[in-house]
């Protein structure tokens, strides 16, 4: 929680408030004063767009944008922070406090104290600097562990170093023994079991992808192997008591049970690919460091979704031509929440939500079975052709609005920026939220670094290709010689041999592709490249530098793997 160190531009208290910290070690006190004195107008300008609500959401979500922004600025502007913390008085010379004494400091007037791993910290002056505003007071007078347990991102050295600057004492041994272990209040303790084959990018929240070599074994991705992208703990939802609330329409809020969705509305099936905006981020990171989960090429999967059309539910709730005159967006709010009660949220344009050709579902089945907990049980939104962040899982509320969602994930994440934008200059209000994704493809076999037996003189290359907005992939070009020559791969649209092509503009599912070609002679090493072309003749860019962005999103340059040729 203790991330963005700022002074007059973000605090109402300034020097006077810092001087009120009677128990702060002298070295830390002097360092805090220096932070205030070094504040400049540039800090104000860059931080003015980060409201406390969105800052808190980003902080608890560990989404990377707000956290990385704060840490980058802290490290860049105040390199003496760690040194100052190290010169503070040793813990052995600090006073010992009882839990009762700590509990008396629960407000700005009395001071805001917290405990962490047996230490006592006076964070009073940090409250006004905190991007989450005074919501940090939820932990006042008590332990940080139940709050920090929500996201393992807090348990990193740089975060703990910042916290150490606020240490004023130790918690007495007797009260320390009484504190519940963090594990007992772990909000992730009820998360579902996952398949061990998944490659984990983070445990809390759980984010993982299947190995590339099994990703394209099947046109329909089994739910166990479907990539997992969670921002918060998986909620426990009782399907019998589940209620979906629809707001913003004439006549007031309307609620639908799971049974209502299944019986009052026709069931529709849509085969659609879902891709994370950060898919292939690890490749962009190799060009220049970015902030975010280190996804490989498998943060994308394809499933058959079944449920009620969002359009039908909105019409039943009162949507009509009069609403269309003023409404522009449809908001979704999940039942997954952080410790403050803030839920994951997103929105999509109204025309996508209500179009007969938009195919947006309130899905309650995945691949012919009830949706698994990790994928949104009992009901999730599926927005075909759009970034996965808008397909809100465990959806509990829908709202029709004239404005875009104010959720952190709509306003302060999942946006693209030019290569020249860094954490000092980023302005999230200057960029639109990502909706449709660009054309994408990747090689799933052979793997990078694989040894290829040359005995039969041929090489088979496999992969996937997909484009957002319902644009069909019409061609995948493959090169076995680093881009000098190209061959066209064979595309597969389904597991059915003679399935009809999708209607124009409604190609929601990926294409699997394969090429078997002679090995180029003579060669000891090959660079294999793929690039896809969609129905609008959009093609992947050749390299990452022109599309580099600080969050590593929309990473869709040509995919390359290098293999070694060995004698059979």
Automatic annotation (TrEMBL):
Name the predominant localization: mitochondrion
The GO terms this record gives for MF are: heme binding; molybdenum ion binding; molybdopterin cofactor binding; sulfite oxidase activity
Q: Which top EC class applies here? A: oxidoreductase
> Which reactions fall under this protein's catalytic activity?
sulfite + O2 + H2O = sulfate + H2O2
Q: Which UniProt keywords apply?
A: Heme, Iron, Metal-binding, Mitochondrion, Molybdenum, Oxidoreductase
Which InterPro entries does the UniProt record give? Answer: Cyt_B5-like_heme/steroid-bd (IPR001199), Cyt_B5-like_heme/steroid_sf (IPR036400), Cyt_B5_heme-BS (IPR018506), Ig_E-set (IPR014756), MoCF_OxRdtse_dimer (IPR005066), Mopterin_OxRdtase_euk (IPR008335), OxRdtase_Mopterin-bd_dom (IPR000572), OxRdtase_Mopterin-bd_sf (IPR036374)
Q: Does the keyword Heme apply?
A: yes
Q: In what pathway does it function?
A: Energy metabolism; sulfur metabolism; Sulfur metabolism
Which EC numbers does the record give?
1.8.3.1
Q: From what superkingdom does this record's organism come?
A: Eukaryota
Task: Quote the function comment for this protein.
Answer: Catalyzes the oxidation of sulfite to sulfate, the terminal reaction in the oxidative degradation of sulfur-containing amino acids.
Q: Give the PANTHER family listed for this entry.
A: SULFITE OXIDASE, MITOCHONDRIAL, SULFITE REDUCTASE
Protein's recorded name: Sulfite oxidase
Species: Oryzias sinensis
């Amino acid at each position: 929680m203790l991330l963005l160190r700022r002074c007059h531009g973000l605090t109402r208290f300034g020097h006077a408030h810092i001087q009120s910290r009677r128990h702060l070690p002298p070295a830390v006190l002097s360092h805090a004063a220096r932070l205030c004195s070094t504040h400049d107008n540039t800090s104000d300008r860059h931080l003015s767009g980060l409201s406390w609500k969105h800052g808190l959401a980003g902080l608890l979500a560990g989404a990377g944008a707000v956290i990385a922004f704060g840490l980058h600025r802290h490290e860049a502007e105040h390199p003496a922070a760690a040194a100052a913390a190290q010169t503070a008085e040793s813990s052995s010379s600090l006073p010992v406090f009882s839990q009762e004494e700590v509990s008396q400091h629960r407000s700005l007037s009395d001071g805001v104290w917290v405990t962490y791993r047996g230490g006592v910290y006076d964070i009073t002056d940090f409250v006004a600097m905190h991007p989450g505003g005074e919501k940090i007071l939820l932990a006042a007078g008590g332990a940080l562990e139940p709050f920090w347990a929500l996201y393992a991102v807090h348990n990193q050295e740089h975060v703990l170093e910042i916290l150490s600057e606020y240490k004023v004492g130790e918690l007495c041994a007797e009260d320390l023994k009484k504190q519940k272990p963090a594990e007992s209040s772990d909000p992730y303790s009820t998360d579902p079991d996952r398949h061990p084959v998944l490659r984990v990018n983070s445990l809390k929240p759980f984010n993982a992808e299947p190995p590339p070599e099994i990703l394209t074994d099947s046109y329909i991705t089994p739910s166990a192997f479907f990539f997992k992208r969670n921002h918060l703990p998986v909620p426990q939802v009782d399907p019998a008591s589940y209620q979906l609330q629809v707001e913003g329409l004439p006549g007031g809020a309307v609620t639908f049970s799971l049974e209502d969705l299944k019986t009052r509305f026709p069931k529709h099936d849509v085969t659609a690919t879902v891709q994370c905006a950060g898919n292939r981020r690890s490749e962009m990171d190799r060009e220049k460091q970015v902030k975010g989960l280190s996804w490989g090429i498998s943060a994308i999967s394809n499933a058959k979704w079944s449920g009620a059309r969002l359009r039908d539910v909105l019409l039943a709730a009162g949507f009509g031509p009069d609403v269309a005159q003023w409404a522009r967006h449809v908001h979704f709010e999940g039942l997954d929440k952080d410790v403050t009660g803030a839920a994951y949220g997103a929105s999509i344009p109204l025309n996508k939500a209500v179009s007969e050709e938009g195919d947006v579902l309130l899905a309650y089945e995945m691949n012919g079975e009830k949706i698994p907990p990790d994928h949104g049980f009992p009901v999730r939104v599926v927005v075909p052709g759009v970034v996965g962040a808008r397909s809100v899982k465990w959806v509990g509320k829908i709202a029709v609005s004239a404005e875009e969602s104010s959720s952190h994930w709509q306003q302060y994440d999942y946006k693209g920026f030019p290569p020249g934008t860094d954490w000092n200059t980023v302005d999230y209000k200057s960029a639109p939220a990502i909706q449709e994704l660009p054309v994408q493809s990747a090689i799933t076999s052979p793997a990078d670094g694989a040894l290829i037996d040359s005995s039969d003189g041929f090489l088979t290359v496999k992969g996937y290709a997909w484009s957002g907005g319902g644009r069909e992939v019409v061609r995948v070009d493959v090169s076995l010689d680093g881009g000098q020559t190209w061959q066209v791969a064979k595309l597969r649209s389904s597991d059915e041999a003679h399935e009809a092509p999708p209607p124009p503009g409604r190609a929601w599912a990926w294409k699997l592709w394969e090429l078997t070609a002679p090995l180029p002679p003579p060669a000891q090493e090959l660079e294999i490249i793929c690039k896809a072309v969609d129905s609008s003749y959009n093609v992947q860019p050749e390299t990452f530098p022109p599309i580099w962005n600080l969050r590593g999103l929309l990473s869709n340059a040509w995919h390359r793997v290098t293999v070694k040729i060995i004698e059979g």
